[in-house]
Fold this protein.
Amino acid sequence: MATIEQLRAKLEHDRAQVLERLELLRADTQSAEESREGSPFGKREEEATEAFELEKRLAMERRLRESLADLTHALTKFDAGTYGKCELCGNDIEPDRLEARPQASLCMRCKAQQLKSVAGAS
Ligand SMILES: [Zn+2]
């Protein structure tokens, strides 16, 4: 079983990776925009592909930002001394769950409840 220190190290590692990928994505988007400006007579098909690529990049960026927020949030809980506690019921989050997903903020029970209520609302 992973120790708290190992989980923290993993979170920090993951966070650094997400930041790096966001940085790469941003550089990539910028260069794509520059090349588009350089060729004002692009074909329709190319434009459609570019729009699709941009859409994909934006979706990826959104996902990365979400996980960055989760990871950052989890890391602040180490300092607050609340890491590993469920944010809804206050019980300890299952060690297996933390090992699989160190940024988890809810215990399995509360997560299952949350998923059920989201599914029920739609
Ligand atoms: Zn809970």
Residues 86, 88-89, 91, 106-107, 109-110 surround zinc ion (CB under 6 Å). The radius of gyration is 20 Å.
